[in-house]
Amino acid sequence: MNAKFFVAILGAALSLATGAAHAQTLTYGSGAPERANFHEKGVKPMMGAITEATDGKVKFRGLYGGTVVKLDTTLQGIRDGIVDSGYLITSFHPAELPHVGMLGEMSALASDPFAAAGAANEFLFKHCETCREDLAKQGQEAVFMWATSPMSMVCAGNLSEASDLRDRRVSIIGSGDARWASALGMAPTRTAISDLASSLQLGRSDCAIVPINWIRSYGLTDIAKTVFTMPQGIGAGAIPLAVRAESWAKLPPEHRQAIQAAVAQGLYGWIEGAYLDADKEVREQTRDRIRYIDEDAALAKAWEAHRQQEIQALIELAKRRGIAEPEKFVNDAAAVFRKWHDEHLPRFAGKPEVYAEILQKELFGQ
Asked: For the chain, what is the domain count?
């Protein structure tokens, strides 16, 4: 056989073998229903963008609705290799993720979801080594963090004003929501997201602090009667794409960079489509059945008073979790949230391309 021909054939074979070795199909576990808006308008489009950015080398196989992992067992599922990746709500695991889980408790520090997502990502990737160590100890990597649309008070009864909320039971997800509920004289009860409908329907709770689009995603359409829409915090403590460290390490650097670039380009659209647009759609679809209260002076005054006390409350929470230098930890995070709201937001508001540039330059292009 001609030597040059043999070398060419060998080179082509090695190239094909290398490409095959780098190709991965990652199982993705989520305890939320597949129909949930953030799956349809967020997770799935982002997966598609990642597959395209890696020339088809990185694909995903979605396992939704708690079929393999539930919302509160995703951490263990990724760590133990049950799934390669998943939707990880960090605040559900304060013992295993004491530092990064704090981001899920800081909802009162944010008023804009795009700024909140940027701040959460910056704090995680640039300022919080202990957050990344939390994840490393659990054998996983965060690809990015996200933020919800503003929280609202969704109630099963026919209410008229903020004073009607007193003494009512309210389903909450994180400690920040619990502190807010207590400030209103309500009785907070931690409720699994998948149990929101049954809790409201069976009277275990009267209200829930959730984004409006969750009314559709979690089956509250025929249960909710009143919604106080004044923004009541923004959740930014979840990692919608956490990947098992072993699976992440198998990806070549160029694929990891392509994934990060796809995230930078797609995060604005994710938040807009999966949350803000969905809020508007759900409100329009239910306006004949649900009373939406957009203004309540007493509620607004109570919220501002609550926000003023949150930094100290978060410091106390950090102390209880054993975080070293809790004041510095909380104040550093708060400074990043302020920067994204005060400095970056005026630059990127309504400009997805500018938002992508900031993410790429300051975070993912490092």
From this structure: 2
DSSP string across 205-265: -SEEEE-TTHHHHTT-TTT--EEE-S-------EEEEEEEHHHHHHS-HHHHHHHHHHHHH
| Predicted confidence (pLDDT) per residue in 164-185, tens digit | 999 999 999 888 999 999 999 9
Task: Return the biggest CA–CA distance within the chain.
Answer: 89
Q: Does residue 14 sit within a domain?
A: no
Give how far Cα 351 sits from Cα of 121, 245, 268, Å. Answer: 19, 34, 9
75: containing domain: 23-149+235-284+315-364
Residue 196 backbone phi and psi in degrees, to 5: -60, -45
Using alpha carbons, select from 65, 54, 64 the residue that is nearest to residue 23. 54
Residue 233, sorted as left (phi over 0), alpha (psi -120 to 50) or beta, turns out to be: left
Looking at the fold, whether 207 and 343 belong to one and the same domain comes out as no
- pTM here? 0.90
